[in-house]
Amino acid sequence: MKKVVLAMLLFAFMAVHAQHYVFHVDLTACKNNRLPVILDVPELNRDTLLYQFPTSIPGSYMVKDYGSFIKGLKATDQAGKKLRVQYNKKENNFRIFNAKQLAHIEYVVEGTWISNNKKDYIFQPGGTDFELNTFYILNTHALFGFFEGYEKIPFELNIHKNAGLFCASSASVQALSDVADKVELPDYATLIDNPLMYAHPDTVSLKVKNCTFHIAVYSRTGAVTAASVLEIMKPVLETSMARFFPVFPTDNYCFSFFFHGPNDDRISRYGGVGALEHSRSSFYFGYETRDKDQLKRFVTHVSSHEFLHVLTPLSLKSERVYNYNFKTPVMSKHLWMYEGSVEYFSALTNMQDSILTEKEFIENIRDKVIYSNRYPNISMTEFGEKICENKDENVYRNVYNRGALVAFLMDIRMNELTNGEQNLKKVIFALDEKYKGSFFKEDDLIQELISRTHPLLKGMIDSLVVGNYPLPVEQYLGKLGYKFYPEKADSMYTYGDWAVRFDTSRNKCIVLNTQPNYNVFSISSGDYLESVDSVEVNETNYSKHIDLLENPVDKKRLEVVFEHYGQRYKSHGYPIRIPVTFRCLIEPDKNATEAQLKLRQLVFGK
Predict the structure, then answer these.
(1) How far apart are the first and last CA of the chain?
(2) CA 390 and chain centroid, separation
């Protein structure tokens, strides 16, 4: 009897052990931005199998055809005999027949960053790029599929690489040798939550509270380093994020950055800068700059936003996000919270810790009003639920604008109704604690928000979250002691009508869109700006000088040196004041009441 029991246990162990995916990826075999992948198939004992690639992934909210980047997929039995395979482009999968004989699948993945298809391009932070012995971004959802019905069995990745390459990832990467890594993950959802970036190492780490943060950078020409990114992120992590989170929800987090160079048009022509969040990591696609101010603006805003996603939707989420359907995604109504509140919090918390000034925060709100006004008023719940049906990327971006404004107005209302006892952050943290490790029902969130604050919040939610009423920006800014003007005639100082951009090919600032009689310095389009008030304008400081030239704040006299057809000229001038009409102007009310200032203090937390 004991022998029978032992035999059964051994059989059960072998069956469970056999039911896992074993992938082999040889980075040294990539050619022309294509990378071969081999899968040792788990024992599934099915006549027909569907090898599925995701139609959409968490955090992207767009339907994309990842299967179209899979080339030459071949299924074979143990003897190497080919099995019949049928590709379904519409469903993004490969149907394999006589699958009981299936032993291996082989295919080649084409890097998405080099795609010529503008219509169906993959936004770079969610795509792939393979450059031999230089750089590889392995966004796992774009390389590895799963057999339908078998998403919850383990995955094993065996990576062969060139010696000297380092893998930046939140996954536990086992370095078997200088040229071999192994990664083991419990299921498909965890697999795609852990992208892998291979490059020659440029990394730093920082411990804050209970979390160790890792920063890995690949910069095409070396213009940006991990140390320079850390210098920017250190106050964000040690002040803003440490204040926002009493305890960080993870003890390990990886920021991976790719910065493209001046000759990278092939991989940067579609899409643009941005990032994609994961539970314990985020991947960033940006452009190289040696200008510290410009780099700081990008890194501060985007990294704050992406890291705050560890609160929602990576922790606090609805059932639709928790049980994500990779084949036929059913989107959540509450995108306004997942993206809008995070966008709002990223600006608010940086303002609370003086990384942003109050004026910069208000200007951020103004920019969002201007952007949101370009589009019709929408129901945020309907917008979230139908986001994958939306083909206009600019409309999609409105979630970061109107969604953030809804969060801002809701925060004001919560503070007002409860005299500061409750606010949006407190409520979201309370809900996160309640549903930690689980999910809330799609239709329960709104009632949860109301029951945790005040019954009168329902009117706002019915109008601005469920309904499609105009945003009462003027009314709510007034509650904080600000005046809002849809349009206001005023005047401003200017040195002229022109634009200045940094020309990386000449390593100089080039002047555009002007003529000598359009500006006080008599500069022409195509001239190169060399100095402003005896300070050389170069790649490390140009944004500060461009801002000074394009947005003078007073009547300051400036002297400039510029190059015109190879000749150097010196010129000086004073700005002139011209009439302008400002849109969506927000100004502090000089006659703000004590009650208004108190509510502003409650909302701003300072």
Answers:
(1) 73
(2) 19
Q: Taking each helix axis as running N to C, give the angle between helix 424-435 and helix 402-418, from 0 to 180 degrees, rounded to the nearest 10.
A: 100
3 state DSSP class of 528: strand
- C-alpha 161/C-alpha 29 separation (Å) is 9
- Joined together, the tokens standing for residue 516 give 């000598």
Q: Is 159 helix (H, G, I), strand (E, B) or coil?
A: strand
- The CA distance from 241 to 237, in Å, is 5
How far apart are alpha carbons 43 and 23 in whole angstroms? 14
Which pair of tokens denotes residue 248?
């960080």
Q: How confident is the model over 27-33, as a mean pLDDT?
A: 97
Rounded-to-integer distance, Cα 141 and Cα 129, Å: 13
Separation between Cα atoms, residue 285 and residue 197, nearest integer Å:
12
Residue 19: pLDDT over 90: no
* Each residue's pLDDT tens digit, 423-452: 999 999 999 999 999 999 999 999 999 999
Query: Residue 289, Cα to own-chain centre: how many angstroms?
Result: 19
Q: What is the pLDDT of residues 542-597, one digit of tens each?
A: 888 888 888 887 888 999 999 999 999 999 999 999 999 999 999 999 999 999 99
Please tell me the pTM assigned to this model: 0.92
One-letter amino acid at 126 equals G
d(CA 285, CA 272): 8
Q: What's the CA gap between 288 and 377, in Å, rounded? A: 37
Q: Report whether the peptide linkage leading into residue 313 is cis, meaning its omega lies within 30 degrees of zero.
A: yes
Neighbour tally for 325: CB within 10 Å: 13
Q: What is the pLDDT of residue 393?
A: 66
d(CA 269, CA 286): 12
Q: Which range (112-126, 190-204, 461-475, 525-539) has the least confidence?
A: 112-126
Residue 236 and residue 196 in contact, taking contact as beta carbons nearer than 8 Å: no
- How far is residue 179's CA from residue 158's CA, in Å, rounded to a whole number? 11
Residues in the chain: 606
- Contact in structure between 279 and 310 (CB atoms under 8 Å): yes
The H or E element spanning position 187 is: none
**For the chain, give me the number of helices (H) and strands (E)?**
19, 29
Question: What is the spatial distance between Cα 322 and Cα 314, in angstroms, rounded to a whole number?
Answer: 9
Split at pLDDT 50, 70, 90, the class of 18 is low
Per DSSP bridges, beta strands 85-88 and 93-96 are antiparallel
**How would DSSP label each residue in 29-55?**
G-BTTEEEEEEE------SSEEEE--S
